Please model this.
Amino acid sequence: QQPVQSPQAVILREGEDAVINCSSSKALYSVHWYRQKHGEAPVFLMILLKGGEQKGHEKISASFNEKKQQSSLYLTASQLSYSGTYFCGTGPSTFNAGGTSYGKLTFGQGTILTVHP
Amino acid sequence: GAGVSQSPRYKVAKRGQDVALRCDPISGHVSLFWYQQALGQGPEFLTYFQNEAQLDKSGLPSDRFFAERPEGSVSTLKIQRTQQEDSAVYLCASSLMEQGWPRSPLHFGNGTRLTVT
Model:
């Protein structure tokens, strides 16, 4: 089931902060965050794992609340380059097929972030 | 090095035509995903390869969709007898899976925008 992101859109001035939320009705084991600019590929930002492990960019932070099945992405002191659509992708634990482990992400509908000068 | 390369960048097909979309992943990446992205939506999972093995095709919408990765590198997504509802951006993503799932980020291509008229 698709995770739900909020808000759907945010408009900021440079230097302002924003929080983007991602909620799932299913138990979460991992959350990936990606940013996509118009007509371009989604770009990896952050991975959060059950248990608190994180991996990602230094200038972007995020939280992962396993009990609430939620993740939040924190964008501080926004820059013009932050503009784009942010997607969270949620994953279950690994699947197994023929002895091989893998996983797949289910993405939210996206949050459009616009930063003005 | 080079990122994930997809071709063609744009494809216009008349309803009923067959199309083939190509994905050239980052060299050495064992995992390859195909996603479909409708306008204003998040990517939706289509299929997954680990090397040449197609481990998951649960997201393919119908038997008109077929994907292959015969030598474990380049992948082709084929859509037979295209319909208007097939119009979307088709994204390919690869991952080295160097830290296993779900610690390894996905690297997306710019996608192929398919328009069926």
About this structure: Chain B touches chain A at residues 3-4, 31, 33, 35, 40-45, 48, 50, 53, 55-56, 91, 93, 97, 100-103, 105-111 (CB under 8 Å).
